[in-house]
Structure formats: C-alpha cells, structure tokens
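A reminder before we start the practical. When you read a complex entry, don't treat the lines as separate problems. The point of joint prediction is that each chain is placed relative to the others, so the output describes one connected object in space. Small molecules and nucleic acid strands, if listed, are placed in the same frame. In the example below there are two entries. Take a minute to note the order of the lines before looking further.
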Amino acid sequence: MASDLLSIASSGVKTARIALDVTAQNIANVSTEGYVRRSAAMQELVSVGGPDRLDVSLSGVRLERVVRNADAFRQSEVRRTGADAARADAEVAGLTAIETAVEQSGAYAATVDFEASLRQLAADPVNTSLRAAVIEDARAMAQSLNMAAAELDAAGTAMRFEAQAGVEQANVLASELARVNLRLARAADGSSDRTSLLDQRDLLLQKLSNHADVTTTIAADQTVEVRLGGASGPLMVSGGTSATLAMATAGDGMISFTLDGAAVSPTAGSLAGKAQALDKLAQARGDLDTIAADFITAMNTAQASGADLNGNAGQPLFSGTGAADIALAASDGALIATAPAGSPAGSRDTGNLDTMRGALATADTADTAGRLDGLIFDISSTVAGRRITRDALAAIADTASRALQAQAAVDLDHEAVNLVRFQQAFQASGRVMQVANDIFDTLLGIR
Amino acid sequence: MTIIGTGTAPFYERSVRGMTGLRAQAERMQSRIGTGERLARSSDDPVAAARLRTLARVDRMAQIDATNANRAAVDLSLADDALTSFAEAVMRAQTLANQAANDTLNDTQRAAIAAELSQIHGQLVDLANARDSMGHALFGGAAAGPAYELDASGNAVYIGTAASGELPLGDGQAVTRGLTGPEFLNFAVGGSSTDLLAVVRTLADGLQGADPAQAARDALGALSQGLDKVATGQTIVGARLAWLDLAAEQRLDRSELRGAEQADIGGVDFAATFARLQNTLLVLEASQSSFAKLSSLSLFARLG
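Here is the predicted structure of the whole assembly.
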C-alpha cells in the first residue's frame, strides 16, 4: 500500500493540534499546585508494506501518549525529606513555645527579686516596709511561677489541638487517596484523565507526608499502597480502603497514635515533631513543678525554725505543691520568721533570716533562681540545637524539591518555544495538504 | 530540553523566599541596633544568655549589698559620733573629779560638782540609749527596745542582747553592725567589773558622802580606764568604717568587671552590625532589582 500524502498531512495537523493543546494546558496550569508538566509523545505511523520491496508505506504520525514529566524517585525523595523537615519544623515551633512560656513568664527575675528583698530585710529585720517588700516579691514570684505553669499548659493544649487537626487532615487525605486509587484502577493508560489522577495522587501523598512519614508502594496499575511509620509499619491506604489514624493523650500531656487500633509511631512529619515537643514540654513542666515544690518546702521549713515579729513560732509562708498552685499563705509581713525560735517580739536577731537565705542558696535543692536558670538553659539550648537540625533538613528538602521542580514544573519560556514549534508544525502540515491538493489538481489538469 | 533549568512558579517562589529571608535578616539586625542587645531570646545563644542571667542576679544582689553597706556605714558613723560625745563627757567628769579631789573645796562647791556629775550620768545614760538611723537602740545589740534602763535605785542596767549581729556585704563578707553598750562601757577595776555609768554615779554619790576627796581620787583611775575603753570602742568603729569603704571599692571594681562582661556577651557591636546591615540591604536591593529584570523577561513578550 502506498502512502497517502493527504492523510499523512492530516495526521500531522491532528498531532500538532494535540501538542498545542498540551502546551496551552501547561501554560494555563503554570501556578497550579501539584500540576506536573505534560508533554505529548508522538510515534511514527508506518503501514505494513506490500510485496514490492520498494513500496513506501508511510502513514504519518500519531499521539502515543501524554507524558507526565515526574519521576517516582524524585517524588519519593521530596516526600521523605519534606516529612523530615516538617517534623523538625513542628518540633522547633513547639520548643520555642516552651521557651517563651518559661522565659517570658519572668519567673527567674521574680525569684532573684525575692532573694534580693530577703537580703535587704537583713539590714533591718523589724522594718515593716522591708517586710512588706519581701511579701510582695514573694507574691510576684508565686504568680510568675503560676504563669509559667499556665503558659506551658496552654502551649501543650495548643500543640495537642494542632496534632488532633493534623490527624484529622491525614485521615481525610488517606480516604481521598483510597478514592483516587479506585479511579486510577479504572482509568485508561496514558489518557489525560489518568495523568490528572496521578497528579492528584502525588499531591495527596505529598500532603500526607507532611503529617507523618509514609512509605509508598506503587502497583502496576499506578494505585498506591501507603504504610505509616516505616516500611514495616501498618497499612494506611491499600487499594480502595483506608485505615483511620487516632490520637490519644496521656496524663502528662504526651500523645500517642493508633492506626485502626494498632499502635503506630511516626518518625517524621509534623505529628512526630509535635509528639517530640510534647515530650520535652512534659519534662519541662515536671522540672518546674519540682523546683517550685522544693522551694515551698525549703521556705516553710526555714519558717518553722524561727520566730516572727510578734515572737510567735513561724508559720508556712507558701502553700501548694507545684508551680501551678504555689500561693502565698501569709500576707502579713510580720509573719516572716527572721529571728531564731524563742526570740522575743520585735527581736532584731537575723539568725533565722540567715538560715532562710542559706536554704535559698543551697545548690541543687532550693537554689530556685539557679535551677530556673538551668531549666531555661536546658530548653533554650535544645531549641538552638534543634534549630540547626531544622535548617539543615529544610535545606535538604529544598534541594530535593528543586530537583523535582526542574523536571516537573512548567517553564513559560519553554512553553512559548513549544507553542511556536507546534504552530509551525501545524502550518507545515497544512502546507503539505496544499501540495497534495496541487498534485491532485495537476493530475486532473492533464489532458 | 529545558531552556532554563527552572520552572516559572518555582522561580517566583524562590525569589520570594530569598527576599523575605534577606528582609528578616535585615530586620533582626535593625532590632539589635534598636535595643542594643544581641540576644532577643535565650535560644539565640544559650550559653551567653545563661551567663547574662547569672550576671544580672549578681548585679541585683550587689545593689542590695550597696544599700545595706550604706546603712551600716551611717549607723557606724552615728556610733562614732556618740562615742566622741561619751569621751567628752568622761573628760568633763575627769576634770570635775580632779577638782573634787582637792581638799580645799568646801561642801557647797562639792555639792555643785556632784550635781553636775549626776547631770553627766544622765547624759551618759541618754547617749548609751542613742538611736540609729532606723530608730533602734544604737548600742542595744539585737534588742527591740532601749539598751539601758534605770532600775529602782537609779542605776543604769543593760537590757540589750549580748551581740550586735553581722550584716552580709556580699561575696561572703560581713560587717558587725555596731557595738553593744557593755563592749565599750564595761571594764574591771581592781578585779571587780564595773561600768562607766556606775563609776560616774558612784562618784556623784561619793562627793556627798563622808570622804568626798578620797572618793574623787578613787574615781579618777576608773574614769581614765573608762576613757581608754571608749577610745578603744571608737577605734573599732573606725576600723569597721574603713572595712566598709574597702568593701565598697571592691564592689565597685567587681561591678565594673561585670558591666564589661555584660557588654561583651550581650551587647551589640554597633559598627560591625551596622556594616552587616548595610551589606544585607545592598544584597536585598540587588536581588529585588534583578528579580524585576528577570521577571520582565518573557518570551511571550518577544513573540508577536
């Protein structure tokens, strides 16, 4: 069978138009999230030749398929590194909130003020205004410890709220993925319907990987199987079914996750970061409580070993058992037991005040200011260290996403060139039709 | 083939990220210059922040130590003044005792001297009950009320505490707040202990007794011993004042060192920060203008 110039030209026109359509689609979706640049792959059409060996049987061109310019490896790298970066980001955000709560509550400064006013009282222990200053500074200190505890609790609540929202989003994404899987199984290979489903699938996977580390297995029909928490973790999405992620909060505010009832621990993604920050928060909160409790014990023990301004045995100055409920038990400055036990009313003996100040300065037990300093240092150095990790992970994730974008993102200049190229191809094929027509006319014109 | 290695959307994204990064950096430096502090929060430099907190704590304590030391200095000066008055009164008593020791004086004259001596005794009791800057007994130790009290027979009895207690001056140093009455008024005459107030009162009583001249001669030795004791007390007070001065100097030295360290750790190097800010702004400006140039480059604009 010989070639047909007109049909070759018409196939050229058709494919050029398809290529122009693909280019237009790329331009239209230049800033669509998750859109992967398409290109049209063409294939030469050759008919089966006749018995004559020199038979030229060319049939033009056809569209082989629409190519999605994304490779699975780069995409999985983006997911993996993105999950790590999201984890570090969430952890640093949580730790920064902890740092703010402890540092900005002013507990350290208030403790130093209390210590200072006790020292000032030593100059004139029977002076009522100095005694009142001690009481007020003690009140300020108790309140700032209350505030630090409340701020820490609020930070924990906010983190758990965000984690719960993250869990719900992950569930929505997983069920969405299951639905995409079902449609993918039915879509025809290489069709534009399928490419847009694949875009959706990859976008959903990327979003899911921001919440938790996902391990994906892509089947021959392009459906995806998702496991949570490592390659041997439980299945979250398989074919058209998705498992439900749930979060549980322990008494100390730490969180844990289950997938359809089976325990799962994500090692990356923002959920993992939040869990890590909440661990640190529980530790900081416990430390703060211990510091406050030791302070209460030390001050009240010292009070009990002395006599107040009226010559009575010293009564407890603070009540409460931790940072959240520490409160001033005595609001009268006269109740501060500055004199040793058994001293008469109005004694200027500072024996017990010295004991009290000594107790506050004892390292590791009641050196409240020193221990608060240590707590702030512990948290802030953790933040500083994690921030370095986060920056490194962010840079790695950025590189991975750049590598993917170089391949998958739409470049307008490239599309402009394609536009010109396919327009020319279209015109050229049109010209071929013209030639075929001329030949036909020439043949008809022979007389 | 890709013409430029990047897509259009990523180009805009990256430009935005780069420029916001530079802007944030510039703002951070601006706030450093504005506040004069290098650290906005502890995590900027945990070690330096911890050191700054410790320095601030020591600073706060040093302030209290300074006011405490000033108060102690005022009280010790008051004690010094009171001791000078003591010495003057005792010297006047010595003069009077010398006159009374003269056998030629008649009874009227001796009675006048005795009257003046009882006045001096009263003065001495008042002086011994002098108040410090806070209104407490200057020589009463840690007692709440006055230092001396007159008993039924008119003798001054010490009712203060045995010691005056110490006032901490920071860095483990302390100063004794003052003197107690017995510390500079009590002494022993011929093995039996007595005090200056009793000596003067005995002298005043003795001048009206059987052998006034002998009584006056007996008192002279005790008075000179008492004067010695008062002088010793004054020396002690002077030494403590000198110690306070020394401690104040040390405190000042240390606070200067602390200030230097604070500026070193937490302060902003203005010249360097400003230069860096200028540099960042320059880079920001350059990246803005290059962004404007690059983003206006579109092949579509060329294709007609």
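Discuss with your neighbour: The two ends of chain A are 27 Å apart (CA to CA). What might explain this?
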